[in-house]
Amino acid sequence: MSKNKELFSWVKTIVVAIIIAFIIRAFLFTNYIVEGDSMLPTMHNGDRLIVNKIGYKIFKPERFDIVVFHANENVDYIKRVIGLPGDQIEYKNDILYINGEQYDEPYLDELKQSFDGLFTYNFTTEEIIGQKTVPENTVFVLGDNRQDSADSRIIGVIPYDNIVGEVNIKYWPLSDLHFYH
């Protein structure tokens, strides 16, 4: 093979690889770096994640998914989906009730043990968003670090259209490698 043909082959391979990487990044997956402590102890400031952008184009978010969403034009947040459309959320004495049914939140155990008093203050959906239930095409989200999280208790429900995607992998630091459903 001549040097020109070999060079052309390499250039073609590199261009195809760049196009494939662009498609994957633009439409399927993206990297995300956690900023802040609102998801402690599940995620820490500086953790690096892979976010699945395509999944919610096909399926709806599920309860307890960890999602990245546009909080405003300039900022993305990462939180846990607690309420789905039609859900009535209530927190009473540090216990989560959804539609009157009690739910365990084992991901909070570590922080709750080190906290004196109510870790999540009492509230109902109606007190927070002015409606008894989570509206259609929105989700109610909370940070795992309930004492330090700007979540639906402050910013309201999150429209589906604002959700970037679901966190699938925490890949950095490598010692904390974790796959989420």
UniProtKB/TrEMBL annotation:
<dbReference type="GO" id="GO:0004252">
    <property type="term" value="F:serine-type endopeptidase activity"/>
</dbReference>
<comment type="similarity">
    <text>Belongs to the peptidase S26 family.</text>
</comment>
<dbReference type="InterPro" id="IPR000223">
    <property type="entry name" value="Pept_S26A_signal_pept_1"/>
</dbReference>
<dbReference type="InterPro" id="IPR036286">
    <property type="entry name" value="LexA/Signal_pep-like_sf"/>
</dbReference>
<dbReference type="GO" id="GO:0006465">
    <property type="term" value="P:signal peptide processing"/>
</dbReference>
<keyword id="KW-1003">Cell membrane</keyword>
<dbReference type="InterPro" id="IPR019757">
    <property type="entry name" value="Pept_S26A_signal_pept_1_Lys-AS"/>
</dbReference>
<protein>
    <recommendedName>
        <fullName>Signal peptidase I</fullName>
        <ecNumber>3.4.21.89</ecNumber>
    </recommendedName>
</protein>
<feature type="domain" description="Peptidase S26">
    <location>
        <begin position="8"/>
        <end position="172"/>
    </location>
</feature>
<feature type="active site">
    <location>
        <position position="38"/>
    </location>
</feature>
<keyword id="KW-0472">Membrane</keyword>
<keyword id="KW-0812">Transmembrane</keyword>
<keyword id="KW-0378">Hydrolase</keyword>
<feature type="transmembrane region" description="Helical">
    <location>
        <begin position="7"/>
        <end position="28"/>
    </location>
</feature>
<dbReference type="GO" id="GO:0005886">
    <property type="term" value="C:plasma membrane"/>
</dbReference>
<keyword id="KW-1133">Transmembrane helix</keyword>
<dbReference type="GO" id="GO:0009003">
    <property type="term" value="F:signal peptidase activity"/>
</dbReference>
<dbReference type="Pfam" id="PF10502">
    <property type="entry name" value="Peptidase_S26"/>
</dbReference>
<dbReference type="InterPro" id="IPR019533">
    <property type="entry name" value="Peptidase_S26"/>
</dbReference>
<keyword id="KW-0645">Protease</keyword>
<dbReference type="InterPro" id="IPR019758">
    <property type="entry name" value="Pept_S26A_signal_pept_1_CS"/>
</dbReference>
<feature type="active site">
    <location>
        <position position="79"/>
    </location>
</feature>
